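Support case: user asked for a sample of complex input and structure output to validate their parser. Sending the pair below.
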Amino acid sequence: MGSSWDVGNWPSFDPHNFSQLRPNDPSAPSTPITYHPTHERTLPPPDQVISSEAKNILLRQFYQRGDEKLRPKRAAPENLSPEQECKHPRASFASSSEPPK
Amino acid sequence: MFRRHNITARIFERQIHTPAPGTSIHRARRFYENIVPASTIYEVECPDNSFRKFTEDGKYLISFSRNHQDLIVYRPTWLSFSCKQEDCDNQPLPPKAKKFESFFTQLYSVPLASANELICKDFFLYAETNQFGLFATSTAQIYDAPATGGAIQGVPSIEKITFHLLRLEDGVVLDERVFRNDYINLAHSMGVFLFDDLLAIVSLRYQRIHILQIRDSGSLVDLRAIGEFCREDDELFLNSSAQALSSVDKRAPHHTPVNNAVNGSPLEQPAQENPFLSGIKQRLLSFIVRGIQNEEKDETMRIQSLKKKFYFHFQDYVDLIIWKVQFLDRHHLLIKFGSVDGAVSRNADNHPAFFAVYNMESTEIIAFYQPFNILQMSSDELYLLFEQYCDHFHVPSKSSPYMNFISSHSNNIHALEQLRSSKNKATSFPLFIKKVLVSLPFNCQSQSPSPYFDQSLFRFDEKLISAADRHRQSTDHPIKFILRRPPHTLKFKIKPGPEAGITDCRTKRISSFLFHPILPLALSVQQTLFLQPAVVNIHFRR
């Protein structure tokens, strides 16, 4: 009771379940309310351009290892195992187009 | 999950079930479990040609005449006959089934080689988009050729190698490219790599990688020649600066050129005496030096490290020559370096191999791997990449999508199990790596795309038959193809040679197998090493 949801008289476990529901009024079509985020943490940078990576994954691995070799090393010896490398933050690949120093 | 094996049940299931995402081709290929080339016609009467292979789209069968001078192209058709009896399926085949012409129609025969040339019968590359075929003819090899004109000492020379580009539809020769007094490894297309419309030809003698493009019109266009010079205008620049300096020197003879990048020696000497390394060798050595320099922070340690790791082996690095090349994508090449002896010898296992990744556009070396574990650029890193990303070494191109479905240990669990078990069985890991890396860089188009070689459909003895098209030792026993999935039944057998087997066990026989990429049709060719005619069997689905 109290439910104006009686489109089709569908059975329900508890008739009070749908008492809050306002069915769509076909006479006054309304667009659904758009969600606006209340914070700005997830906004993309204003100059972001999404494009596909030209190099395939194998070449990306070659470039990554090459960049790591040519970057000046830290004092502690690095263990260049492939599993750990995958978790390092990816180096910027624009550096590969620089002329060699 | 148990899947029904009955073909009718599978067809009904295909009508109502969509396949899992990304597996529509795999599901379509499963029908090849039901349609197998189980019937064999022994000793087909066929012309005495050496059959090379089916093209990857299955439209042509390429063969060469016995005298290696003509190219003969056939179109695969199918045996057709009429039968008036009641039970036609069990009737024996009509006598015309034993003729080669019932299965193949000859399209044309084109003479490619002139008088003293021979067609290299191991060489054939197919450009699928335009149905172009690339063939090679060469004159005889000269072994002790003098090293003239920038050639490497120790590499044999061939007076004339011609590459012919043909349109396979009608056999018209569209273009030719001639290399004189050069040496290109033509066996199994090892010295040439085709990727989409780009062709990389390795001239071992002059140490150049020629990059050509096959245009749609059928012409071969030179793009660049990497070796002595990296960029297209390097040669022009060096020659023009040499000229400018020689004219400066004539006008002011007392003026000594200081820090001249081109000439370290007096200007009278010819350019070949230039002690500076140029081109790709310079790029390679400077990459190695920068890698070693970056390892040490301390200046004295750095010099020590350079002395020990680089200058000690300097001459070995300088003496490296390009062995083999493949494309990794349109701009990157994987180059294998080694010593001169290794390039020429048949068994390259004993010679250490060095790998480099080179970017043609920026002319930079991206990576370098060597067999010794001195630096951290050793071959086991390359092996790890090969193990994880094997399919990317088999560079897939848009024009040949079937390449994605050839079984390798990156796309097939059974091939991966095989690799793992041989890795565990190997006594020495470095030797195992060396054995595996011998196959890099890959030969172009050397694996058959036939679904009967798909490891997830069939299990077969890899030593007797496999997707790689090379000749194998022939046995009398038929080669069995067994289903991978339950009920693990034997589906069909391939038996090369005559039906009764060979009684004379002394002569060594080799067989080769040509599988049609789409139809359930295969040819097995068994030949002895003497010039006896080959025994050809046709295996097909009746």
